[in-house]
Amino acid sequence: MAELLTRDLTVIAGKATLVRAANLSLRTGELVALLGPNGAGKTSLLRSALGLEKRATGSALLNGADSERLSPMQRARQVAYLPQQRPLAWPNTVRDVIALGRFAYGAAPGRLSAADAEAVDRAIGVCDLSTLTERQADTLSGGELARVHCARAFAAEAPLLVADEPVAALDPRHQFRIMDMMRTFVNDGGGALVVLHDIALAARYADRMVWMKDAEIVADGSPEDTLTTERMAEIYGVRARIDGRSVEIEGAI
């Protein structure tokens, strides 16, 4: 079982506390939604948990190893990371962008081993991109490009996936497509931690919901246990109607 674990993790920038004493876990076999308003500390928590942002106190372990001490290749073999900003530095074909997911194994576009090529082909199939492999990535729609970035992450064949707002700015159909792929990845034995702003989408797909506000984790549990009208008011300042995993936002408080 692969595991990402933080204990009392605190991140400070200047005089601002971005994350305060956060206890977070991700294991294979679960899809975890990380929720909270803008500025709650979600991205800093993810980056510090992965060892990409320095922590002030606490610990962050990736499969038992201090995440800050891992090399980029060691980290990439254990967890695939999709950040909020995913710029393409230069025009590449879709296949070459996906092949970047094999970096952890020493591969590069145009220089793939048979195993690397097979992993890329599997990711292309999972993300339904076979008709787009020779397109330039900078000519794709937002939904198509989101699937390409997911395929790049899946190509790494790491047991864990951390994705920061992978469905931002997508229409509902493409949001469902991306989350279906995340769910399939988990059902096939992976573990996914996904930052989402759509609470209904999170409730539909997540096994566990982790709620943040003002740099702190304030709740962590199943949708049935943590998704309440009181929590929606506390976290987002909105009135909501909750029926099981269904959420209807009625307005601001």
TrEMBL record:
Residues 4-239 form the ABC transporter domain. InterPro entries: AAA+_ATPase, ABC_transporter-like_ATP-bd, P-loop_NTPase. Keywords: ATP-binding, Nucleotide-binding, Translocase, Transport. PROSITE patterns: ABC_TRANSPORTER_2. The keyword Nucleotide-binding applies. One of its GO terms (molecular function) is ATP hydrolysis activity. SUPFAM superfamilies: P-loop containing nucleoside triphosphate hydrolases (SSF52540). SMART domains: AAA (SM00382). It comes from the Bacteria. Pfam families: ABC_tran. Part of the ABC transporter complex HmuTUV involved in hemin import. Responsible for energy coupling to the transport system. This is ABC transporter ATP-binding protein. It comes from Henriciella algicola.
